[in-house]
Amino acid sequence: MTKQKLIIDTDPGIDDAMAIHYALAHPALELIGLTTIFGNVFVEQATRNALFLLEQAKRNIPVSQGAPTPLTITPNPPSHFVHGDEGLGDLPAPTPSATPDPRPAHIFLSETIRAHSGEVILVPIGPLTNIAKLLAYDPDITQHVKKLVIMGGAVDAPGNVTPHAEANIWNDPHAADKVFAGDWQIDLIGLDITTDIACTPEDFRALGECAPIIGGFLNRISIFYIKFYHSVIGKELCIMHDPTAIVSITNPECFGYEPIPLEVITQGERIGDTIHSTNRPPVNVAKTADSDAIRKIFLDISAKCDTIMGAQ
């Protein structure tokens, strides 16, 4: 079986860690790189956490550090109140032994995608600054990426950091607007569906029993995340934003899409709002999802994390 090659652009982050371990565990996926971005944490923390997650899974995969700040706006503070001071809940800062690839993320992305032209799905699950920089650096990269699968946006749904904006788009609206204007295939997995996809504390406790090392780690970091959501929505749930983007690749039958040209508001009180546009290539916006199936798929695959550690 030919595996689908992935590069995940990430700001780990609790649900980023869940998404990365799901990708590593899935037999149909080949993770060939991680690039890092500010957002949930500072970019240096994101790089350190990405290296740690790969080391935890005993995988030798390159990590390339990306942009520390947005293209234009003043950076928003990291969302430590959601993900913890170091990005992994209450856990202390990890100390991975590996070092990042020396290339900046946009150059790493250009060279790696071109080396596997037409084969790589690029999955940004943080702010889109690295992807906008890639597009500026290598405009023809749109002809070499298989597609983008972006976790972000609230097209016809309320935002989660303002009434209008989703966090990843809000953190660099100018970058997101450039990416949505690009001539490449984009699947957008955003708040139109992800807020309905959740796991429970019992789900993660069971995962920790099935896979004590990585599943146990995911259970530990989920506690902080679930406390945050309880404070916001009054329910003990772990909303599965980033993992859902990866599940959309492995199980497309669980999702329904609507083609919508998009632009992003880049100033004023609606900054970061993803709105319907005209005269742009349509984005495949996920509008329906089988929430129960997606939850089960995530848990079933993640239960295998320990048994495939070190597998290439």
Could you list some keywords that capture this structure?
single chain; 312 residues; alpha/beta; Inosine-uridine Nucleoside N-ribohydrolase, Chain A; eight-stranded mixed beta sheet; 12 strands
What does this structure look like?
This protein has 312 residues and is of the alpha/beta class. It has a single domain (4-199, 240-302), classed as Ribonucleoside hydrolase-like (Inosine-uridine Nucleoside N-ribohydrolase, Chain A). The protein has twelve helices and twelve strands. It has helices at 14-25, 43-56, 80-83, 105-115, 129-137, 167-171, 173-181, 191-194, 201-210, 214-233, 241-250, 291-302; strands at residues 4-10, 29-36, 63-65, 120-124, 147-151, 186-189, 198-199, 238-239, 255-260, 262-264, 274-276, 283-289. The strands form three sheets. It has an eight-stranded mixed β-sheet with strand order 3-2-1-4-5-6-12-9, sandwiched between helices. The two termini are 14 Å apart.
Q: Tell the overall outline.
A: globular
Low-confidence stretches: none
> Which structural class do the helices and strands define?
alpha/beta
What letter string, H or E per element, gives the SSE order? Answer: EHEHEHHEHEHHEHEHHEHEEEEH
Alpha carbon gyration radius: 18 Å
Average pLDDT for all residues? 97
Main sheet record:
8 strands, mixed
Report the CATH superfamily: Ribonucleoside hydrolase-like
Please estimate the helix content. 25-40%
Share of residues in strands? 15-25%
The neighbouring-strand order within the major sheet is 3-2-1-4-5-6-12-9
Proper CATH architecture = Alpha-Beta Complex
| Top CATH class | Alpha Beta
Number of strands: 12
